[in-house]
Amino acid sequence: MRLLTLNCHAWQEENQEEKIEILARTIVDNDYDVIALQEVSQKNASDARVDEHYGYVLLDKLKALGRAEDEMVWTFSHYSYDTQAEGLAILTRLPIVRTSEFFITASHDPAVWKTRSIVRATVLYGKQEIDLYSCHLGWWNDLEEPYKEQVDRLMEKVDSQRLSILLGDFNNDAGITGEGYTYLVEKGLFDTYTLAENKDSGVTISGKIAGWSENERQLRIDFIFANQPVRVAYSRVIFNGENQPVVSDHFGVEVELATE
């Protein structure tokens, strides 16, 4: 199973249409089964036009490239950049068995930018049902919406009896011990980067970006976790200027799992 996660920073990128084209072509060329996206926005929250929703624009480009089997599950989290309706999405060509969405923050108010929701899709891979989660969490030092509470609410929804894969922007640096990344692993999640037989640096942001305005370092904050040990053939950073052009303020992560 091939998976991709990317915080796409929708409609905030220069040359946005060109970057969506690059993303679509890469999805087709790399033959992903699952694509998890964060910051998947509709340009104008009051306008339901399909051509203003990043996810539907991407689906149309995939169809134009001959990949028409994908379905999208999207959930709305909060308003951002004054007018946008920001959410999360899962695109997959696998059969979708069921879907759900839920909040991981105390706030459920879309006018509060710290409000966070999660979208989940259960898919059929061969004869196995697998739960997929597209995730976008807050920050470790947030006193209004504590990170541990966000993770606790997320993990309460994870079925320990079924393989679950959690993909996304977790907003915590894997290089810092004792903070958010440590807490995620302590809750029983397995980092596919750690498990990978082949891997690169893992760096997914470099320098200052939205939400990390003081950052001067290269960080690994975007992950693909599993709730069970899995064999991972490779984990690679993508859309970083070396493995495909940059398309967002985050780089993406692609992995290949060996699932039964």
TrEMBL record:
GO molecular function terms noted in the UniProt entry: endonuclease activity; hydrolase activity
Record key words, sorted: Endonuclease, Hydrolase, Nuclease
InterPro entries xrefs: Endo/exonu/phosph_ase_sf, Endo/exonuclease/phosphatase, TDP2-like
Domain of life: Bacteria
Chain segments annotated as coiled-coil in the UniProt record: none
PANTHER family (alphabetical): ENDONUCLEASE_EXONUCLEASE_PHOSPHATASE FAMILY PROTEIN, TRAF AND TNF RECEPTOR-ASSOCIATED PROTEIN
Protein name: Endonuclease
Organism: Jeotgalibacillus campisalis
Taxonomic placement: Bacteria, Bacillati, Bacillota, Bacilli, Bacillales
